[in-house]
Amino acid sequence: MKKAIVVFSGGMDSTTLLHWAVQKGYEVYGLSFDYGQRHKKELEFAKYWGKKLCKWHKILDLSFMREIAGNSALLDTSQEIPEEHYTHENQKITVVANRNMVMLSIAVALAENIGAEVVFFGPHQNDNTIYPDCRPEFVEAVSRASQLATYKNVRIEAPFVRMKKSDIATLGTELKVDFSKTWSCYKGGEKHCGKCATCQERKEAFEKAGIEDPTEYEVGS
Question: Which residues have CB under 8 Å from 12's CB, separation 6+?
Fold first, then answer.
């Protein structure tokens, strides 16, 4: 069986990707990261899906990211999480500098070590406006670098990079993903706040896909 590393956070996109990789016949090894994010609750859902779908699942400590990329509102709790649309300029404050490059480099090393031919991660079209390390040109460049850096020519692929989040909601429904067991909210409360950009994007995805949103949001959001 083909082996693949799937980098996933416990969010709806990467959890759908995990299901997709299993459906494609890969023996999946899951990799998630604790990088000091304030919405660490996502890792609870990563653990759930890791046990359910992966050969094994590791959560690695990248808390040093606070020291090298701490300007992000996802790491600096003194900053407010913005509540404008996910394409608004002020969402750049949620970027964790070079995060995907760091995570993918680790995933590629692991892939080379266990004989996996590919690393999958889950950026999509909606991410392109704000997050430079989620764009197709980044995926192409980092995959080329990965192949040059490994004996097994490990590829990095982002199957959803040209898909909208609503398309992912549709695909996940077809794959029977239980979206109630995924996490998107950047504020990391007990429930999804319903107001931050990622909550808005989540709501919008289900609405555009014509799928019932199973998410429990805070009252009045």
Answer: 165, 168, 169, 172, 177, 179, 182, 184, 202, 205
Per the CB < 8 A criterion, the answer to whether 3 and 26 are in contact is yes
Strand positions, DSSP E, the chain: 3-7, 27-34, 56-61, 118-120, 155-157
Taken in order of first residue, the domains within the chain and their CATH numbers are 3-209 (3.40.50.620)
119: region left, alpha or beta (phi > 0 left; psi from -120 to 50 alpha): beta
pTM of the predicted protein model: 0.95
Amino acid (one-letter) located at 80: E
Each residue's pLDDT, cut to its tens digit, for the chain (221 residues) gives 899 999 999 999 999 999 999 999 999 999 999 999 999 999 999 999 999 999 999 999 999 999 999 999 999 999 999 898 888 888 999 999 999 999 999 999 999 999 999 999 999 999 988 999 999 999 999 999 999 999 999 999 999 999 999 999 999 999 999 999 999 999 989 999 999 999 999 999 999 999 999 999 996 54
C-alpha to C-alpha distance for 51 and 129, rounded to whole angstroms: 33
CA 77 centroid distance within chain: 21
Integer Rg of the chain from CA:
16
**Residue 1 in tokens:** 């069986």
